[in-house]
Amino acid sequence: MIAATALKPCDSMARFRRERQWSEARMWQAFAEHGAGLTNLKNPQRAQQKLKLIMEATFRLANQGGFQGMSLRQLSQQCGLSLGGLYGYFDSKEALATSVHRFIDHQFRAWLLPEYEHAHESQKLATLCRYHLYLSELMQPWFFFSYMESRHLSKQAKQQALAMSNQVDTLLLEALSKTGKSVSSPELEVSLIKHQLQGWYLRRSHFKQQGVAVDEYCHYLLQRLGIISE
Fold this sequence. Notes:
Protein name: TetR/AcrR family transcriptional regulator
Distance between the termini: 32 Å
GO molecular function: DNA-binding transcription factor activity; transcription cis-regulatory region binding
Number of helices: 12
DNA-binding region: 71-90
Number of strands: 0
Radius of gyration: 19 Å
InterPro entries: DNA-bd_HTH_TetR-type_CS (IPR023772), Homeodomain-like_sf (IPR009057), HTH-type_TetR-like_transc_reg (IPR050109), HTH_TetR (IPR001647)
CATH class: Mainly Alpha
Domain HTH tetR-type: 48-108
């Protein structure tokens, strides 16, 4: 990651990827450590490749028939690993689902929070919206899975997911208060903003069919919020 003092605002996702040095390889490296909790690996690259196979198969099966209906045996067949090999990474579906929520929380703290904390007060809402959209674009399957499957988690995992959701609400409310705008119902405004942020990764296929890119969606949202002019 980049130190907050070195951050300069990015006004496009291409610039974000270039200047923040985002890469898929770095994402899988971070997931291995902070999502799956694998450390001191003899062959980190191989483990990351296996995790990629597992997670991509998980997202695919969850989209086809729902995560609840998926068995670990089906997953092992889909990702090309033996059941024993799969157990070497995740010993249960609960552990697998929890790793996704834990990883999104890590990415949020590693990529979005430094941008938010470094931003000028008047730009905190724009920064929060912009980088939330960038992160959910780059990690769309993760965000979609997290949203759709959160209701099936254990009580403890649900509490963790709820804590992260509440933190986003708190930051949005704080950022909204610093815009200088008079809002009759800040909590309702935050709910509407959050709904629009979620809409990007929940309806991505729709926007893709319409030819709408994340930068265009971001610009439209910030215009609607009165943060930027046309």
